[in-house]
Design goal:
This protein has 717 residues and is an alpha+beta fold. The chain has 21 helices and 25 strands. The radius of gyration is 50 Å and the shape is rod-shaped.
Length: 717
């Protein structure tokens, strides 16, 4: 008959697929007529004549909709619904009865009846349209529930993403902190309860607060503001750390706010300072290095400069005329080395080598030297340039270790990091960048990203602007780009670049973050909000949201505007809805809203009189539920115009009253006819015998007159 969901409740996913209706009616002839009419209207039906049989059936198979006669031979409709509730079966139902009873109607509507019908002459005609309306309402309710569930799931995933950020993140609204992730709490040294709701100047330094306020005002004026700033932040324990933060305007819970991303760059700054110090030391070392220059002829030093003493410990005069053996490492095979030098000079014109040589004082230095031949000299004359590389060797070892650490840092980063020149050619890419671009290092290094297939043509102008900005020393970003993977799919990345000026050229460091999942969640959130708005606007019932504090309408759909005679939903925003309730019902309606809706959240249906904008009196049916709107307590009220239904019911009651009066008059006439029949028989006998007596010749005159009177009276009767 129907599909069932995990809770055992009816699950109508698409009314056009299955319109199964279970009819419970003890009058088999009427049951046949109802089923025949509904089947003709396109519904699949099942019919049962008793409450017990219906209960047994619905415990095993749940119908789409229950059409229930209130009075059954073995139980009432109320008893059947209560038994289903005890078995955890919540089934949408419509109640009908042969006698219109307002008390029964209210009773069943409170139990959740979708509608209440009377088995009158129009019953079979209106039944299909009522069922269709109820099934459409059920479908809309399910779609609304699905949309709300999807919205909550999207919000939960987004919050988890923010909480997992390595950067601190918080939201400021009206200069109060309304949200903070775990990382910012860790950075500040506060708990969440100590931060949420606090004014920013209670947690941040005066300088930082002033800067945030100024940035906020600049954004409000539409002025451009820098993306990031650096400040010294004082933690709760009094320690200080250097932070880099960026702020931007957002909407938080449908109200203007400012989101702040903060990163602790204390260690990074220390590393940068250490690197600068290392670079200064290396530069000073390079400037202080001196080269020793020699000339040899026939293996004897013929000339040298004054720098030789700093490297070898000998004076210039001591070396001139000295054999060249001191120039080479003592444990080497000098003959073999001389052959290698001669062969290299013949082949390439010079020889380059290193050696550990002993100074005059016995100490050993690491020497790098180059030997070349002075062309045209005879006999052969050689020139040698020697450099003490002992300290450089040590620095190279330290530099290799530093570079290895830096490389490990870069390769471990979850963000893509790359270096490119002024033309856009990749000079370095880390592992994450290869993963994001779906390319190997070999496929990226030395290639221009404007020429690679990973960047779609529509992003070339933006990428060109990045190169132009970097060329003049301006950083960029974060900017959003799409990259095309090898399988044709696309990923969204957020790219920031930072130019580095090196002598006469400019290179830039780029950081790319894969934001594909974030974009997908943002789009899912926007779609969920659009779906919710469509459902809100397309429902057949009027919907209004009433602020609990002010009692004013803060949101309404067009159906609600139509019911109360407003031109559009926006026209009703800000009105006091209880002013449109008839004075006789107003106090009770206000009490129901405050106590039953906002207080107990009972979800009960109430009917009352109201007035439209032009003063016309109408009857409405309303049910409310407690909710939140823009972070504040509110009530969501569903309203249905039942004026026509009430008019029909009143007309029906009037006709039934006339019918009952006519029935009573007919009964009196029938009674009178019966009495007349019972009297006519004996009177006919009396009249007949009186005639016989009057015709008798022996009758006394006095008796004859009496008999005549009897005859006349019997005849009159």
């Amino acid at each position: 008959m129907s599909r069932k969901n995990k809770t055992g409740n009816c699950a109508v996913n698409d009314i056009s697929v299955s319109n199964a209706v279970l009819i419970v009616e003890d009058d088999k002839d009427l049951l046949h007529l109802i089923r025949k009419g509904l089947q003709r209207a396109g519904f699949h039906t099942e019919g049962i004549s008793s409450g017990a049989d219906a209960l047994e059936m619905m415990l095993n198979e749940v119908p789409e909709l229950l059409l229930l006669d209130y009075r059954l031979p073995d139980m009432t409709g109320r008893q059947l619904i209560e038994k289903l509730r005890e078995k955890r079966r919540v089934i949408p139902f419509i109640v009908f009865t042969g006698q219109g009873d307002e008390k029964v109607a209210v009773e069943m509507m409170k139990l959740g009846a979708r509608d209440y019908l009377v088995k009158d002459s129009a019953f079979l005609d209106v039944l299909p349209s009522v069922i269709r309306q109820v099934l459409r309402q059920l479908a809309l309710e399910r779609q609304l529930a699905d949309a709300e569930g999807a919205l909550k799931e999207t919000a939960r995933k987004f919050e988890r993403l923010v909480e997992d950020m390595h950067d601190g993140y918080f939201v400021i609204q009206d200069f109060n902190i309304v949200y903070a992730n775990g990382r910012i709490l860790e950075m500040m040294g506060y708990s969440r309860d100590e931060v949420i709701g606090k004014h920013v100047d209670e947690l941040l330094s005066l300088e930082m607060t002033k800067k945030l306020v100024e940035l906020h005002r600049q954004r409000l004026r539409g002025e451009p503001v820098p993306e990031q700033y650096e400040f010294i932040m004082t933690k709760r324990d009094g320690t200080e750390c250097l932070v880099e933060f960026g702020a931007r305007r957002i909407a938080y819970e449908d109200r203007p706010a400012v989101s702040v991303v903060m990163r602790d760059i204390t260690e990074r700054r220390k590393a940068e300072e250490a690197l600068r110090e290392s670079e200064k030391h290396y530069s000073a070392l390079v400037r202080s290095l001196t080269d020793a220059v020699f000339k040899f002829k026939g293996g004897v030093v013929t000339w040298c400069n004054e720098r030789v003493e700093e490297i070898y410990g000998y004076t210039k005069d001591e070396l001139i005329g000295k054999k060249a053996g001191f120039f080479f490492q003592q444990d080497m095979n000098h003959s073999k080395l001389i052959d290698e030098i001669s062969a290299s000079i013949r082949e390439s014109g010079f020889f380059r080598g290193t050696a550990m040589v002993e100074r005059k004082d016995g100490s050993v230095v690491d020497i790098e030297y180059t030997i070349s031949q002075i062309t045209g000299s005879a006999p052969v004359e050689l020139v040698a340039v020697a450099r003490d590389i002992t300290e450089r060797r040590q620095a190279e070892v330290a530099l290799r270790e530093s570079e290895e650490r830096l490389r490990n840092y870069l390769e471990s980063s979850p963000d893509g990091i790359f270096v490119f020149d002024s033309r856009g050619t990749f000079l370095y890419v880390n592992r994450a960048q290869c993963r994001i671009a779906d390319c190997s290092r070999e496929e990226l290094l030395g290639k221009n990203f404007l020429e690679l297939p990973i960047l779609p043509p529509e992003y070339w102008p933006k990428a060109t602007r990045v190169l132009d900005f970097n060329a003049v020393g301006r950083p960029t970003g974060p900017d959003e780009f799409e990259l095309v993977k090898k399988d044709g799919s696309r990923v969204f990345v957020e790219v920031s670049t930072y130019p580095v000026v090196l002598a006469d050229k400019v290179e830039a460091i780029g950081i790319a973050r894969d934001i594909t999942e974030r974009k997908r969640m943002e789009e899912a959130l926007r779609q969920s909000e659009r779906n919710y708005r469509v459902l809100f606007e397309s429902t057949l019932d009027g919907l209004i949201v009433i602020d609990a504090e002010s009692g004013k309408v803060v949101l309404a759909n067009q159906t609600a505007a139509d019911i109360f005679g407003f031109a559009g939903a926006k026209e009703g925003i800000g009105i006091a809805p209880f002013d449109f309730v008839c004075p006789k019902d107003r106090d009770e309606v206000v009490r129901i809203f405050l106590e039953d809706v906002l207080g107990a959240d009972l979800h009960e249906i109430h009917e009352f009189r109201a007035r439209t904008k032009d003063g016309r009196e109408i009857w409405v049916s309303a049910v409310g539920t407690k909710t939140e709107y823009q972070g504040k307590l509110a009530g969501l009220v569903s309203i249905r115009d039942i004026t026509e239904r009430r008019r029909v019911e009143e007309e029906k009651q009037r006709l039934e009253e006339q019918l009952r009066l006519a029935g009573r008059l007919a009964a009196v006439g029938e009674l009178a006819a019966g009495i007349a029949h019972e009297l006519n028989n004996p009177l006919a006998a009396v009249q007949g015998y009186a005639q016989f007596l009057m015709a008798s010749p022996n009758l006394d005159e006095k008796l004859k007159r009496d008999v005549e009177i009897m005859y006349r009276e019997a005849q009159r009767a």
